[in-house]
Amino acid sequence: MERMEHCSAGPGACSVCGLVPLTTSRHPVRVVAQSKAMQDVLRRASRFATSDAPVAVFGETGTGKEVVARTLHANSARADRPFVPVNVAALPTELLESELFGHARGAFTGARTPKAGLFEEANGGTLFLDEIAEMPLLLQAKLLRVLQDGEVRRVGETRSFEVDVRTVCATHGDLVEAVRRGAFREDLYYRLKVLSVRVPPLRDRVEDILPLAEQFLARFGPKLRGFGADAAKALNRHTWPGNVRELENAVRHAAALASGPTVRAEDLPEELTSPPRASGPKRTSLRPLAEVEREHILAVIEGCGGSQVDAARVLGIGRNTLWRKLRAYD
Length: 330
Ligand SMILES: Nc1ncnc2c1ncn2[C@@H]1O[C@H](COP(=O)(O)OP(=O)(O)OP(=O)(O)O)[C@@H](O)[C@H]1O
Ligand SMILES: [Mg+2]
Hints:
Elements: E1 22-23, E2 28-29, H1 36-48, E3 55-58, H2 65-74, E4 83-87, H3 93-101, E5 102-103, E6 115-116, H4 118-121, E7 126-130, H5 137-149, E8 151-152, E9 161-162, E10 166-171, H6 175-180, H7 186-192, E11 195-198, H8 209-220, H9 229-237, H10 243-257, H11 270-273, H12 281-285, H13 289-303, H14 308-315, H15 319-329
Parallel strand pairs: 3-10, 3-11, 4-7, 7-10
Antiparallel strand pairs: 1-2, 5-6, 8-9
Helix pairs in contact: 1-2, 8-10, 13-14, 14-15
This protein binds adenosine-5'-triphosphate (ATP) and magnesium ion.
Adenosine-5'-triphosphate binds near residues 29, 31, 33 and 313.
């Protein structure tokens, strides 16, 4: 099958999606989009890049929401200004408040010096609010005010000052449902998702699997020459509940195990190659939930190359919850 060259021709804009290839601080990323579904996402993103309106990026865990947000920024008029990511689910409310908005000297115990917040850091650029559905309600009200007024006030300060920040937010959750159950403000929801884009799960863009895998292999196993036929088949057949991140971890796993010139099926994590277990309705109905849960959790950790942080994301539970469960299995 002939492959469409995409985002690979040096620094200029790509002839397929119109976007400039993405370079992150950690490593260059050629945004893989062989599938029509992903090309549509990038085309939509390239139209958004010319506007200053807030964008919401939706999609299952690990689908590439941050990649899309970074691509948007890199292609906007703000490209030479900072892209500032913040995971709003990762910090307790007070800490997140001072992280986002900054604080005055003496605003709270330990605030010995004044500190600029991420809104100030992102001035002129893009603030990427990740896991937005998890934002505490108190801070949702404050965020809404900043977005309405275009002004930020540091915690413990009386003066406000103007900021020019474009927001891109992302969530793997269902924001509409969060609004319905009162966990997310409706007014903030409409303000943040003026423009929106949904990144499809990897199982719905099978054409992307091998090109992504090859790109990851070039990073994790530069000496390896690609995937053998069996390995490629296993990669294409898997349903990838953890999406691109799970694929990345599977390739890292394979690159560490592979001894030959190419990756073989047996180098891949077990759940990609072992045949699905025979599980008649009887067997399923007679097994305790805790046992099924334990088995699934351990399989996901394995699939994530041993990373509990990634596994917690895939499972959709907090890291502490995962840790507590694992401790109970010892
Ligand atoms: N289209 C793509 N091309 C190349 N690399 C990609 C692509 N999509 C995702 N990746 C890579 O996969 C990994 C996961 O992507 P990313 O962090 O953007 O996902 P996410 O949707 O934000 O995940 P989470 O829901 O866990 O926050 C990253 O290492 C990223 O560089
Ligand atoms: Mg993310």
